[in-house]
Amino acid sequence: MATTMHGHSAPRLFGRERTLHAALGGRRAADIILWRDKKESAAILAAATAAWGLFEVAEFHFLTLVCYAAMIGMLVFFIWTNASSFFNLPVPRIPETLLSERATRQAIQDGHRRLSRLVETLYYIACGKDIKMFILVRRQSSHSVCYQKLQKICF
């Protein structure tokens, strides 16, 4: 099963000329996938398992997680800022971000344009002007659990 190449033997995948490490790119990603860098591979596996546990098992939502992270970050910054005077530590520095008025205005106008187009499309679908899409949406929503529950409550 092992063939010699350049004076040393290494296992080959399905009798190929290249090793599995070389087939995966032969760099850091291959080391992680093949568990040659055990600490980093374990950290990635632990992070993926934690994410799966939060989102699938505990039914956490991503936005909730982002908000909690932002609140914890603000709390740490608040405590650090107030405690720095007691312990003679330097005050944490926040990098200043400068946005030009033109870039901000363009971003707002682009978002407004997209939102207006979305509302207009939803209006045409709801009014029945795009009858094909209206029927597709109506048929999809009639099969959903939420729609059936709303029908029981309202009608």
Automatic annotation (TrEMBL):
GO terms for biological process: response to bacterium. GO terms for cellular component: endoplasmic reticulum membrane. The chain crosses the membrane at residues 60-80. PROSITE patterns: RETICULON (PS50845). It comes from Setaria italica. It is found in: Endoplasmic reticulum membrane. Residues 29-137 form the Reticulon domain. The keyword Lipid metabolism does not apply. This is Reticulon-like protein. It comes from the Eukaryota.
